[in-house]
Amino acid sequence: MKVIVPVKRVPDTAGEKKIDSETLNTDRESVEAVLNPVDEFAIEEAVRLKESGDAEVIALLVGPESAQPIVRKALSYGLDSAIQVTDDAIEGSDALGVARVIAAALEDLEFDVVMFGNQSTDARTCLVPAAVAELLGLPSLTYARHFEVDGDTVVVHREHEEGWDVVESTLPAVVSVVEAINEPRYPSFKGIMAAKSKPLDTKSLADVGADAGQVGRDNAAAVMFEFEPRPPKEAGTIVEDDGSGEAAVQLADWMQEKKFI
Amino acid sequence: MSELLVLIDHSEGKPRKLSLQLVSAAKQIAGETGETVAAVWLGPGASDNAEVLGKHGAEKLYAWDSQDALDYVTLPKVAALQQIIDENDVSTLLFPSTNHIKDVAARLAIRVDGGVVTDCSDLQIEDGQVVGVKEVFGGDLITKARVADGKFPMWGVSSNAFTAEEGDGGAAEVVDLDVQLDDAAKGAKVTDVEKQASAERPDIAEAAIVVSGGRGLGEEEGFRLMEELADVLGGGVGASRAATDAGWYPHRYQIGQTGRTISPMLYIANGISGAIQHRAGMQTSQNIVAVNKDPEAPIFQITDFGVVGDLYDVVPRLIEEIKKRKE
Question: What angle (nearest 5°) sits at the alpha carbon of residue B221, between those of residues B220 and B226?
C-alpha cells in the first residue's frame, strides 16, 4: 500500500503575523515557520499503517525551497521519502490553485490513500482535501476521527457537530483527519538523523504537469485585497473573588445589563 | 432575473439556524443587486419548510426529495447543485461555512469554475459586487476578499454573521428536482450515524452563548458544572485543547487553532489561560468573560468581564444567581 501525506508550512500561531503590503502575501520570513500542527496527526496515522503492514509512506509539500526544513521535519516522524513541488509560479495561489498542484503531483503516483490533516492553522479554509479528491475523481473521506482499511475497503468515522457518520468506501481515496484520531509521537533522535538523508525529490510545475495558467496569484479565483490588524480590545472590568463566590453577583449584574439573562 | 442561491443545511427535517441567517443575508444582498433569492434543500423534508424559508426571504425553493442526498458522502449534493447552476440563471451561491459543507463547495467549485471564500463574518456590496469580510490567522488580521472576474462566486458564511429575520413573505415556490447520480457519486456510503450530542443543548457554532472549560477544571466532572451553567443560559459547551486532550470532553467541541472557530454573542471561559492557540478559535466573540485563578492569565487581556477566583466558588454561585433572576 502507498500512502501520500501532503504537508504544509505555516507561520507559528504564537508569532506575530505580517502581510507583505506589496505582494499581499504572508510575510513568511517575519515569523517562525512550522509544520502545520494538524498534519502531525495525518503523518502519525500513515506511519501506523506502515508499522502494521507494508505501507510506503511519502510526504508531499507544495512550497518554496525555503520550506525544505518542514519536509525534513515531516520525514523525521518516520515517513520514507518526500516530494517537494517548488516553482515561483505557485506563489500567491488560492486554496483551489494549491489543490491543482497537489492533484497534478498525485496523478503521477500510484497511491492508495492520500492522508491530509483536515485544516491548516493559517488559512483554515479546509477546501484543499475535497478539491484534490474532485480533481482526481476520488471519494473525499474528510474529518476522519477513525480510519481503518480492510483490503480495498476503507471505513472512516467522519466527525461532525453532533457526533460522526460511519462511512464505507473503496480505495484509492482522499482522507483528512482530525486531532481526535490518534496521539502523534515525537520524532526520535534516530528519526531526526535519518530524515537528513531520506530521498527528497524536488519538482517544478512542469515536472508534475500542472497548468501554470490555473495557479499563482494572477489566476487565483478568490482574492484577498485588504488587510487590517484586529483593533486592540479595550480593557474590560476585572473583579477579584474572595473565595465566597460573591464576585458572581457582579458578573450576573453585568450579564443582566448586557441582556444575557 | 438572476438568482442568489442559498444552500440550506438541515437536521431532523428542520433548517439549521445558520441557514436561516443565510437566507436573510441573501435577501439583504438581493435587495441591493436586484436579484431574487432561491433556497436549495437536498434530502427529504423541503416542502414542509417552504413557509419558514419564504418568510426569511426565499422566493423559490429547489427541492431534491431524495434520501440519496444524505446516504452518500458529499457528491450527490455536488451533483444537485451543479445541475441547478447549469440549468438556471444563478449568479452566486451562499453556503453555511461548516466542515462537511465546505467539502461540497470545494468539489463544486472545481466543476463550475468557482471562486470560494470560506468563513465570512460579513458580506458587503462594493461597486455592485459582493465582498466578503473574514478573519485570518486566528482573528489577528481582518481581510476583505473578492471573487475574480469570470469565476462563479461562492461565499461561505459563519454562524451569527447575520441575524435571521422573518418578513411577511409567503411560502417559497417549490421547484422539484430530478437528479441522476452516476456510480461515482455513490462511491462513499454512510452506513451509520452516531449521534452523541444532547438534543436540547445547541452546538457551539450556533449558540449565542458558549460556556467552555479548560485545564483549570482539574477533572472531567468539571464539565457537568459547565453543562449546568450552559443549560441555565440556553448555551452550548466548548472546551480548550488541554481539556479535550485529557479526554474530559469530546474533540468536536474543541475551540482553538486545531479545532473549531466560533463567534458567539457571549463566550465564558472557565479555567482557560487563553494561550494564543485557544484565542485563535474564540477571540472574535462579541463579549468575553473569564473566570480564572491566575490574575496574570492572558485570557484577561481580551475579556470584557473577568473574575479572578476559583471557578468552583464562582460558577455555582453564578448558576444560582441566574436562576434567581430568571424567576
Answer: 95
d(CA B236, CA B258): 19
What's the rounded Cα separation, in Å, for the pair B1 and A19? Answer: 40
Which are the contacts of A139, defined by CB distance < 8 A and separation ≥ 6? A133, A169, A170, A173, A174, B73, B75, B187, B188
Question: What are the Cα distances from residue A170, in Å, to A149, A150, A166?
Answer: 9, 10, 14
Residue B154 near residue B117, CB atoms below 8 Å: yes
* Cβ within 8 Å of A, B 302-321: 302-310, 313-318, 320-321
Locate B16 and state its grid cell: 439549521
Phi then psi for residue B13, to 5 deg, are 80, 5
Q: Is B140 on the interface with A (CB under 8 A)?
A: yes
Instruction: State which amino acid sits at residue A15.
Output: G
| Interchain contact A146–B (C-beta under 8 A) | no
Please state the pTM of the whole predicted model.
0.94
In DSSP terms, A147 is beta-bridged to A156
Q: How far is CA A236 from CA B301, B303, B306, in A?
A: 8, 6, 7
DSSP three-state, residue B144: strand
**pLDDT by 10s per residue, chain B, length 327:** 899 999 999 999 999 999 999 999 999 999 999 999 999 999 999 999 999 999 999 999 999 999 999 999 999 999 999 999 999 999 999 999 999 999 999 999 999 999 999 999 999 999 989 999 998 877 778 999 999 999 999 999 999 899 999 998 899 999 999 999 999 999 999 999 999 888 789 999 999 999 999 999 999 999 999 999 999 999 999 999 999 999 999 999 999 999 999 999 999 999 999 999 999 999 999 999 999 999 999 999 999 999 999 999 999 999 999 999 998
Angle A128-136/B99-112 helices, nearest 10 degrees? 40
Cβ of B151 and A221 within 8 Å? yes
B281's grid cell: 478559535
| Dist. CA A162–CA B197, nearest whole Å | 5
Question: Cα–Cα distance between B187 and A138 in angstroms, integer?
Answer: 8
Kindly report the nearest CA distance between residue A197 and chain B, in angstroms.
Answer: 31
Given a contact cutoff of 8 angstroms between Cβ atoms, the answer to whether B137 and B24 are in contact is no
Closest by CA to B20, choosing from B41, B2, B34, is B41
Beta strands in chain B (DSSP E): 3-8, 10-11, 14-15, 36-42, 60-64, 90-96, 114-126, 129-136, 141-147, 152-157, 173-176, 189-195, 209-213, 236-239, 266-270, 287-292, 305-308
CB-CB neighbors (< 8 A) of A248 in chain B? 307, 314-315, 317-318, 320-321
Rounded to whole angstroms, how far apart are CA atoms B114 and B125?
19
Q: Which B-chain residues 175-194 have CB contacts (< 8 A) with chain A?
A: 184, 187-194
The three three-digit cell numbers of residue B23, written as one number: 437566507
DSSP string, B244-289: HHTTSS-GGGBBSTTSB----SEEEEES----HHHHTTTTT-SEEE
State ipTM: 0.94
Answer yes or no: are the C-beta atoms of B61 and B46 closer than 8 Å.
yes
